């Protein structure tokens, strides 16, 4: 009879997973009979615990099975419910979400008056429906059901230039009511960092569009000046995070705008729990190696405890870039550099489906549905919902629809293409060509 590989009664562990499970049992035994040794061995126990969780058959990127994911999420919630602050209220894990833009848009109404509106950006929508396992060196947190499970604060640029102290103070107070913390960037930094390095260099490269030619740029927008502004802006974000960081917080950095942020934060506090998630593709190593300062960017991201991507392919490309460009060792769990392991994993992002289901029940939505059904009665509707972005292929989609109607004239009165396009990156010349 073949031996069960998960049988803890076997005398000699023959697989790595068995060894880790056996070590966990020994740790439990030691905690009961040798409690004084627990503190000194705490770091090693945590490290082994993370390794055993990340090792799963058929899943080399360490994503827990669904039932364990839900079990861990329930455990995390029960732990939160069992903890109380000094004022008697339930305590939650603090989460600092750091992104280039805040989830609200600010409009100045006076010297010390601001109005705020919820932003419709993709990052905000994504976080509402985000579910993933978040690992860090001393903590396992399950981001289950989005950031609503945590006491979250959002740090980012407000999208406006506020040069005066009165305006900055007033905006800070207004944003605090939305649990937001502003990073104040001046116009030149925004021009070089956001419009320059982020949208002129990183974004095209990550979408396989290649780097712009240096001679197309003004002398004040060279690769180096944009890169310097990028590092300076990331340090400004780090300064705001450090100002509001409390021991035990988890810092969750987002997207290609903040690839330097993990390194800046770890230099401030090496024990800080830092994760970084990319909301775009990560290109193959052959494409990434064309980027000036490619090594510096990769090492900055590797300072994080966990690096997340949308898909397995993007995660694989990142590990490949680290091994081929930096010469580091790629493992099933991530990338190892001189004994320090940065976990790399794929965390597909969904949508907040409950929000859409609730919206369908609203009277005004039902009325609009009725109008649309009458408007398109007897015809098939092809619906496209995209940002007005040059990589979304909207002109190609329209041309393809035109070609379909030319080749199939019998469909001309039977089908309609309805394209919804949300304006984006209005400061990027290439995107403005679509408007």
TrEMBL record:
Any GO CC annotation of this UniProt entry? cytosol
Which EC class does it fall in? transferase
Enzyme nomenclature, EC number:
2.4.1.15
* Biological process per Gene Ontology, one example term: trehalose biosynthetic process
What are the protein's UniProt keywords?
A: Glycosyltransferase, Transferase
**What GO MF terms are annotated?**
alpha,alpha-trehalose-phosphate synthase (UDP-forming) activity; trehalose-phosphatase activity
What family does the entry list? In the C-terminal section; belongs to the trehalose phosphatase family.
Name of protein: alpha,alpha-trehalose-phosphate synthase (UDP-forming)
